[in-house]
Design goal:
There is one protein chain. The chain is elongated and about 75 Å long. The chain folds into 2 domains: 117 residues, no CATH class; 70 residues, Arc Repressor Mutant, subunit A. Helix 2 runs antiparallel to helix 3 and helix 3 runs parallel beside helix 5. It has 190 residues and is an all-alpha fold.
Length: 190
């Protein structure tokens, strides 16, 4: 069953991706893939994960394609499938038709695998990134670094590095005026 918030997020994302795909904007596509990776890390459903992998892969392929790394025949076959299937996926999301959506995703996935043998590396990258995002959130909520790493099967070092980049602990839960903070610190030191 397609979760409504996931459906809305995917519809918005696919709507943005289609013109970017048609104009070969690889960096923008890869950037948008981070949005769906967030959903994949929260809901951990097949559709979010598949969408995250596909969108990230399309961005990587377009990036490589700019350098003409792919044989022309394979590139044309890829382009012939992906554009129309992205539009079908959008229609399926508008209709809430999960079966049609998965069919489009599977066709895109097959086109990606026929073009680029690095596809499994993209899958691993997206899943690892989703685990790190989920782990950082768990760590932020007070679960120990070691426990989170063991639960998700990731290294403590990677989790610590990612959590540091997100600046989780730099965010104040309650915003306090600087003058009030200074007065409180002075009272404590008296």
């Amino acid at each position: 069953m397609l979760i409504e918030s996931v459906r809305k997020d995917l519809l918005e994302l696919i709507t943005k991706i289609i013109p970017l795909y048609e104009t070969y904007q690889a960096d923008a596509i890869k950037g948008l893939s981070n949005n769906i990776i967030h959903s994949a890390s929260i809901y951990q459903d097949e559709i979010s994960i598949k969408a995250a992998v596909i969108i990230y892969s399309i961005g990587k392929i377009i990036d490589k394609g700019k350098e003409k790394r792919y044989p022309q025949r394979k590139w044309e076959a890829f382009r012939k499938v992906v554009g129309p299937e992205l539009r079908r996926a959008k229609e399926a999301l508008e209709q809430g038709n999960e079966k049609k959506l998965l069919t489009s995703f599977n066709r895109i996935e097959k086109a990606i695998m026929n073009l680029d043998k690095s596809y499994m590396q993209y899958v691993e990258f997206v899943i690892d990134k989703a685990k790190l995002k989920k782990g950082a959130k768990m760590y932020e909520h007070g679960v120990s670094l070691r426990q989170v790493a063991e639960l998700l099967g990731i290294s403590e070092w990677d989790l610590m590095h990612y959590s540091g980049k997100t600046r989780i602990f730099d965010r104040d839960k309650i915003k306090t005026d600087i003058k009030k903070r200074l007065m409180r610190a002075r009272r404590l030191l008296e």
